[in-house]
Amino acid sequence: MMNAEFRISKKAEIVNQKLYILMSNLFIPNPKEAESIHILREVAAQFERPVLLFSGGKDSITLVRLAQKAFFPAKIPFPLLHVDTGHNFPETIEFRDKLVEELGLELIVRNVQDAIDQGKVREERGRYASRNSLQTTTLLDAIEEFKFDACIGGARRDEEKARAKERVFSVRDDFGQWDEKNQRPELFDMLNGKIHLGQNVRVFPISNWTELDVWEYIRTENIEIPSIYFAHKRDVFFRDGLIWTANEHVFREEHEEVVEKWVRFRTVGDMTCTAAVLSEALSLDDVVAEIRESTISERGARIDDKRSEAAMETRKKVGYF
Amino acid sequence: MDIQGRKLIKIATAGSVDDGKSTLIGRLLYDTHSLTTDKIEAIEKNSKQRGYDYLDFSLATDGLVAEREQGITIDVAHIYFNTSKTNFIVADTPGHVEYTRNMVTGASTSQVAIILIDARKGVIEQTYRHFFISNLLRMSHVVVAVNKMDLVDYSEEVFSKIKADFDELVVKSDFGEDQITFIPVSALKGENVTRESEHMPWYVGNTLLDHLEVLEPNDLQESSVARFPVQYVVRPKTEAYHDFRGFSGKLYGNSLKVGDKVALLPSGNESTIKGIHFFDQELEEAAPGSSITITLEDEVDCSRGDMIVKVGEEPKSDKSLTATLCQVNSKALKVGQKYILQHGVNRVLAKVDRIEEKIHADFSGTEQTEQLKLNDIGRVQFRLSKPIHVDSYKSNKSNGSFILIDEGSFDTISVGFID
Ligand SMILES: Nc1nc2c(ncn2[C@@H]2O[C@H](COP(=O)(O)OP(=O)(O)OP(=O)(O)O)[C@@H](O)[C@H]2O)c(=O)[nH]1
Ligand SMILES: [Mg+2]
Hints:
The complex is a heterodimer of chains A (about 325) and B (about 425). Chain A is α/β, with parallel strands linked by helices and about 325 residues long.
């Protein structure tokens, strides 16, 4: 058929193009990386007190690399903020401190425990107790304390269906609220970060990346990540078809039996809301292969999202990341 | 191209309420195995709860509570999927009242528009508008997907009639015939989406997915002149880079290389490119689309909002401007009003001198008006506080477009396409 021929000629064209590129030393950008760098530079230029929300997970680690690229050879011109639930995996915290040290970054840590001690939020109890949603109060307090006008986050639109509606520059009111029905349109790559006093903007430079994009990038760039992203032996228990970490931070009923398994994590959040997956992936190649084959989404292993269909949207409306 | 050498194609959907845009995208996701089991389970559960005897794929993209309640799309959703050859980004736009604003927004970041037509309804007024916007934004391809063919007995006659009606619009536009493709589909049943339809043996073209995969949108190989708007000045002031002063930005239009003679605008000073930096790499030449940092041979004054171009390729510079505007906010644009005009990363003040005309977005002509309301399209003359350096939208999309920001609310209220 005509189409087959058309395809072959197109292929030849692409091959020719590649040859030309090889011969001419022409740098061809990765469009998603170039877009993210463009966004980060807009943040540095349009805002007075930006901050990068750093969780120690692969998305925020990717953001740090992109920020390095955006401002090289200068240092990243904004600090990192970690909202620590106190229930983080120790591997993540170690990793965080090492990264900050190596790159000479400024790190601010604010603890959910403080908000609990001050009686601002109440610790959840029982079977699904988690400090995940308690982070919002600590985050909003930190924004107020440091007068941050832009908070850079590693959320991606492919993660969750409410996230798919998010803007790159997402304006929040004084209470950190997201008004999902009244968002500024974003045209071409022009970003409008003009805000009133008290408002702030959540910025999502890797909005257009997929989970696989992130992993392929980490592999290509050879970026170091916390060890819990790779397969390791761990004490776990099974509940609701998910694999939970068995330790003192995670509520477990007596009949829920602890077993040792080879697992890894796909997202690295609070221990109480991040489920593990069975895995034998020991290298980045293995991880990428596993993600490609995977039939369950990254958020499928997030216990917080399983609670309800609209969990993310509800959290975002009150000021969550 | 991405890291894996796959090309990236960006698509915007268009069509009236209930034409099946979200269903079509959901179907594409499902058939390309881009929906994970947990998402499929959620769709199954939800469809059942609603008493449907089929899977409602629109649930895959309608992400807000209000959307699922009402069964309509309210805001643009961005959807990602890939095949072995191509990465796709789809902007699934809503079809209800505010379609103009939403389609312009979705289309501004896309190269391809899929316009859906309900086979039972044929070409309607909104189809005219969607096509008008595709034309205004100079999409590189338009796919006309005639949907719900299952409800018209997969009739060739119905399809041919719609195609003939649509062809009358094509002659009124700037599109060539090779830029428009017609495909009869059933999004719900998956006919001609990724799988050839047994019910439509009379259709000999590609399925939708096959067609999208062979497209080579023209702005992948940009071929106008190089434009480098300076976003940020990098001054490390460290020992190793004591005198380093780099100009960071994203390159548009064409490539730049070390040794190129360049002009800095607005000053008009000239210099030569000394280095092109991308992180720790020193490049010889960078292709359009690169986010790079440029150093110059001379100590010249240059800051955010300035533009670096090749000598002899300077854009026009003017304190007055005529553009086609689309109003994307419920606040109307009025003669005599002042706005912040953002052109790329540069901002100036702009005053509306005159609204030449309001353009009917259905190819039916123009009318006189004193204001442009939400979703209106019109030709507007501005006076600017400072000259800006522009190309026509036709010759360079990024340097030929701008947004207007309201001075009170700071909302983005219109988008302009420069003549
Ligand atoms: N029979 C049939 N029904 C379809 C087809 N495609 C979509 N529908 C139905 O049409 C209705 C509307 O579909 P949606 O996908 O929500 O329409 P939409 O164009 O996204 O609507 P808005 O986003 O609100 O503008 C749903 O009930 C679908 O199941 C089709 O090919 N055949
Ligand atoms: Mg829809």
